[in-house]
Design a protein that fits this description.
This protein is α+β, with helices and mostly antiparallel strands. The protein has three helices and four strands, in the order ββαβαβα. The chain has a single domain, classed as Roll (NE1680-like fold). The protein has a four-stranded antiparallel beta sheet with strand order 3-1-2-4. Strand 1 and strand 2 form a beta hairpin.
Length: 95
């Protein structure tokens, strides 16, 4: 299964996978407005892949076959303050 992967011009680390290069007809208009002008990153054959870097390969295939596109969002930002507080609480419990 071939697909084209585009990055967002507006949203960092946000990608859309579509079945056919430059065919965004299956992507909702509101999503395309938020996504901005797509910038082609690569064309890839998912059939030859065992895994993808930041997306679940099976979910991508199911989404492409079902709705015609897959949207990859960036991971949530780290909450370093929360992590620090948890570490401090754990240290205080041990005293």
């Amino acid at each position: 299964m071939l697909c084209a992967i585009y990055k967002s011009a507006k949203k960092a680390q946000t990608y859309i996978f579509v079945k056919t290069r430059d065919d965004f007809s299956s992507v909702p208009e509101a999503l395309m407005t938020t996504f901005g002008t797509p910038v082609l990153v690569t064309l890839t054959n998912l059939a030859t892949k065992k895994k993808l870097a930041f997306a679940n390969l099976e979910r991508v295939k199911i989404s492409l076959n079902g709705q015609g596109y897959y949207l990859q969002l960036p991971p949530p930002p780290e909450d370093l303050l929360k992590e620090h507080k948890t570490q401090m609480d754990n240290q205080n419990e041990g005293e």
